[in-house]
Amino acid sequence: MTPLNEAQLEQLKEISTHLRQVRQQKSIRIEEISEKTMIRLGVLEALEHERFEELPEPIFLQGFIRRYGDALGLDGNALSHMLIANVVRQDPKNTHKNLDKKRNTYIPLLITYILLLLSASAGLLHTLNPRLTAESVTPEDNNQQSIVSNQ
């Protein structure tokens, strides 16, 4: 898992403690949650026992928290957004740098797609209507042939 900052770790601790307490209050075994949510038992145990280094990336963790909360009858979506709000706000300076890099890669791709579309259209036009392309070449050839024959 990518290292989380202090605020993220604190938020994750609160969420995992809340989930564990609700599960225990409802007398639901962790194995039942694992079967119901299709989340591996080891991941659920790592989450409940705050062994965060064993957990997957935050984006996957968000889905696990959402499904776990829903299985307990809580608003899993709200729980998962509490964690992601901290993850997204982590470093706005790096986010802007990453967006600039992404914009730069889209421009060459756009040009490539346009060229590919034009060449495919020209190939399709030639394949579907070969006489049209032959006629456009033929008048020039006739003019050249008449010039050659006149000399």
From TrEMBL:
The chain crosses the membrane at residues 106-125. The keyword Transmembrane applies. Keywords: Membrane, Transmembrane, Transmembrane helix. The keyword Membrane applies. Pfam families: HTH_25. This is Helix-turn-helix domain-containing protein. It comes from Nostoc punctiforme FACHB-252.
